Amino acid sequence: MRTGEPMAAARKVRGRVPEGTQQHRDWLNLVDITGPFISIPVLRTAWPTLDALDKRTRTALRQHHANWQADPATSQPAWLHYVLAGLLGWADELHWAEDVDLAPLAVAVPEHDTSIVPSFVLTEPGGAAKPDSIRLLGLVTPPGVHPTGRQPGDAWAASATDRLARLCRTHDVPLGLTTDGRWWTLVWAQHDGATGTATFDAIGWADTAERDVVRAFTSLLSRHRFFGVPADETLPSLLEASKDSQEEITESLGVQAREAVELLVAAIGRADTVQRERGEPGITDIGADTVYRGSVSVLMRIVFLLFAEERGMLPSDNELYATAYSAGRLCADLEAQALESSEDDLEHSHAAWHRLLALFEAVYWGVDHQRLWMYPHDGSLFDTTSHPWLPANIDDRTILHVLRAVQYVETGTGKNKERRKLSFRELDVEQIGYTYEGLLAYDAFRADEVYLGLTGKSGAEHEAPLSELEQYAAESADVAELAERIANAYRKTGIGTARGLARKLAPPSPTEREEQRQKLLAATRGDAALSDRLLPFANLIRRDLRGLPMVILPGELFVTESVARQDTGTHYTPRDLAERVVRDALEPLVYRVGPIQTADESRWVPKTADELLELKVADIAMGSGAFLVAAARYLGQRLVEAWARDGDDRAMAAKISRALGDVEEDRVVVEARRQVIEHCLYGVDINPTAVEIAKVSLWLVSMDGDKPFTFLDDRLKTGDSLLGVTSIEQVRSMHLDPAAGRDLHSDLFAWTASTQARIEKAADTRRRIAELPQLGSPLDWLDDKRKLDREAADDTADLRIAADTLVGALLARAPEGPRGMNRASVEAAHLANQVMRDGETKPARDQADTWLRADQGNTGFPRRPLHWPLVFVDVFDEGGFDAVVGNQPYLGGQKLTSAQGHAYREYLIHAIGNGVRGSADLVAYFVLRAHSLLKPTGQTGLIATNTLAQGDTREVGLDQVVAAGTTIRRATKSMQWPTKSVALECCIIATSCEPLGDDADSRADGVAVPAITSSLDPESRAIGAPQRLTSNRGISFIGSYVLGLGFTMEPGRVQELIAQNPVNKDVLFPYLNGQDVNSRPDCSGSRWVINFHDWSEDRAREYPECYDQVLREVKPDRDKNKRKVRRERWWQYAERAPDLVEAIAGLERVVVLARVSKTVMPVMVPTGQVISEAVVVFASEDAAMLALLSSGPHYWWAKSRGSTLETRIRYTPSDVFETFPLPELTDELRELGERLDTYRRDVMLARNAGLTKTYNLVFDPDCRDEDIEELRRIHREIDAATIRAYCWEDRVEAVGGLDHGFHPVGRETRYTIGPAAQREILDSLLELNHERAAQEAETQPGRKSRPKRNAKHHARDTLL
């Protein structure tokens, strides 16, 4: 990210900039940078000042530069040799292709019938030109051919930079340098990350004015930087240290965009107040949510325009445009006005707002004037009729701060904090899309009293009524108590600790008090009485972008977190990740013979341009459209290559200028993307604002200044991707199972006879949209497209009503199960017949809407079914989509019901999940839906939480996908989301409905494997899901779910209660939770808990002190609980675990382990205590059971069969223990279990360390302490004894033994058995599970073998 020239106002705000920092800003401003590069804090640390050029070097540079400029073509070799060997000092370490054979470093690109050969390499001193000694690879392009531009006359559209990055990654050399003599592009090719480039223009290197650029070039690439500094100061290390820069900018821009919308909404609210005070109507009849969406649209327009202006898509170089319209210039103009007078004066003018409104109109309608011509671009974003209520009196001060918020970002902290001017040329479209997408999590509300915007964690701040804070103050005896109340009330917002709040609430000095009062008077428009009420809380009120306290007056508007906000995967998806997922899905589709048929790339046969444009690709939860943008780029590039193969003059053009050096601005590439977008891409999202954001993302990546925006109304739709029919047969039969529908409705409806003809007509109409030629004005042409889109919709309108009634009825009846679904089908069919027979749609429409509202959760959006074959008629008329790509929304199984409602959850189970039950994540249903929309040759590329391959979510989702015949061809089982701001483990899959050829390969975590299972593991000899074993029932349990901190207390309080009333000891027990098990040296509970068992309330009252505490501290929260039994029996635990209590009755001790843990290590604990739901309890006091559950075989079974929370294993007894075939619990295991329990307890007490800290040492290769070595020895013996108990010594020995050592587990290390032993043992355990299950089925003929879920045999019919 390069920084721009700071403005005078910015200098005034920041004060004097350190010399070194300014020097770096200056040279960065003269270098073209794309992707990640070195951040200023890292530059400042490595180079407080740039390396100097001595007089002799400057003289030589001028002489060689002059010789080169005299004849650039002929003098290119001599100039390149001087720069690399002389200026940079590479000398003996520089090897040219004409001097050394570099052919062995060539990388074949068979699909384009070419190869990449380096022109030169930089090696370690004395090293040969081999990958292990190469520090940098170089490519030379012909004179005048920009390194980032397309190569003249080459059918492969990749630039020299792209080719060099591929070469670097192949040889694992992170740095490359490509040049034509003038342009020098430094390439950073991260192995698993985005490519970063910095392009230096050598044309002015002989000038004094650009000496800092030359100094920067030599500082970065000199021989000294490669070989004369410590490893952590070399260029690759410095680039790695700066890796978070782009993400930090993105996150900062997202926060500031939200603050800008917040400011704009408040300004609209103030403008409304002013209008009403004048007796004008104002906007009180406009909903706050509408105002919010309008404000978001305004900000989207501004960011879009800033991007378009910098990219040359708008006439920024036109004088009239620059002075009267430009969004990029407006901020500077306003800052100049503020300097001339003051910011306060800007509050009394509105010229900037009117300038923006005029610019919006100009972009939509165009301008035809003798001094300025602008093409009419149309586009719903700029539709001037979409927000007619926008007031005319938004003040210039607001606009100044809105523009500052999106043109400058603040990054870093402390001394490294810096304010950067954004260059939109350097921002990826995905970054802008994510900035927009973050705004979807908020909404606007109209204040019914005075509200204050409180301080807090960025993005999580709370808006609180003043009356609420005053009530807290009235109930508090002093400042400390008030601080405690406020800290507890708003603890989730990050407002601070009670101690910190007490300091803020302390009375200020008289001077500070007066300053606060003046600020509050400005915020309240001079209301002295209100300002005095606010003064006690002045330091808790956050500042808006103007620097004023955020005070919202009654009737005004404010922005706060939406009630519908759920964490469903809305994270910044870096461009390289989206492109990786898309490439995996689309690569098989761009070849007639390709990766589905063979892994031999030399045999791949690319498709023609016409064939490429026939592809149909969808993202069914598109958000900001990052994956559709990646698809547009990927297919656009393939289309350019296809045109080149066909001899298209445009694609083969040799003229490469600097303007075309950026592929994003290459007119041929842009045209290819426009073609792809208009013919190939489709998207759906439940949020209408997200649909608009996705449109903007696609416009940004395909904008042509001389053409209207690509028409997307027929491509991107609003609706619930999971709620709707997927085949026209479902509508004809009025049932999701057409065969069942035909049986149910014995006399099929007469109206179905004409359905096919109407579908074909609508499909033909939609196809005409993309093919419609532009004959008249562009706006008329786009209107004609809209008419065709409406015509196609009208053709299927009554069918959509029929589908709505069907889906609505099924949703409402879903809780009744399959019979209810059949009743729903009959009811819906009756209404549909009325619509088709009488043409009367209102009764059906009203009833469908009523059904669709059934048991609606807090999603915030009306339920809007998306009927795929009726909306995308042309796609499904040809069999469905060729590919589905995207980041699938996730929502944990328990949260799904509360967010969407019980009826919706049941609908998903029956309508999409084939009746397979389980606490599955929402992502499982999206994966099922994605596969149901594909052609028989369809592909997917999907990213999701790693729970997709675990537990119930896997059983509902991927198990059924694989059972239906789909192949998982690429998989990354678990990886950390590649941004530091997100603590999330994700997985990536690419699937194929088309069977793989014998020569094709599958890759799991980048390694070629025979096949990939639904667990995203390489397939081994034992296949299939494990069965739950009857013999394992009644042993493992989840502890009690207390639900209410008011039940718990510290040990000291227990003694007080017993002292007050000795009978209290009957209901007071130690309380053991997962953290206690893992962190306390004796694994004892740190707190105690009140337990009224299953008693009546009257009996609980017999313990008044304990009863009163629960009444006071538990009942208020229980009264809000959605489950009736928890509200009515508030004095009891939410889940009392009676089966556990019965199972351990009479036992003195039990085996337990924390339910979520990295170690998965059990311990023995005494009974007589309440054990929480965060602990798994095994009803056994046998030390042999402790040894078995401590063994490597049990750990690896738990890892493969459990799920995860972040990187920790979530132990689910039903999935792990109940499927784990137990061996005979031998005396040897029993003796080792006792030894482990005794010795480990002594170690933990001696070290004052809990299980986690102790086993961190066990798993640390550097720890060789004697007591830790003994623990490892005990575990080795336990593993060996476990194998003997199974009688598997021979089979383990056949794979090389147990091979104990420090082996990788994800990103961490564990002392455990080796990989070969792991695979053999897991296969053996699965085979033994199947054998035991079969035996149990035979011995219990009345009981069916339970495969944990039902209805999987219907998977193929339902999915495909």
TrEMBL record:
Enzyme Commission number: 2.1.1.72
Residue spans with biased composition (Basic residues)?
1343-1360
Q: Where does the Type II methyltransferase M.TaqI-like domain start and stop, copy by copy?
A: 679-950
Coiled-coil intervals: 1222-1249
- An example Pfam family from this entry, by short name, is Eco57I
Q: Which intervals of the chain are annotated as region Disordered? A: 1333-1360
Entry keyword set: Coiled coil, Methyltransferase, S-adenosyl-L-methionine, Transferase
Q: Which SUPFAM superfamilies match?
A: S-adenosyl-L-methionine-dependent methyltransferases (SSF53335)
What chemistry does it catalyse, as a reaction equation?
A: a 2'-deoxyadenosine in DNA + S-adenosyl-L-methionine = an N(6)-methyl-2'-deoxyadenosine in DNA + S-adenosyl-L-homocysteine + H(+)
Protein's name in the database: site-specific DNA-methyltransferase (adenine-specific)
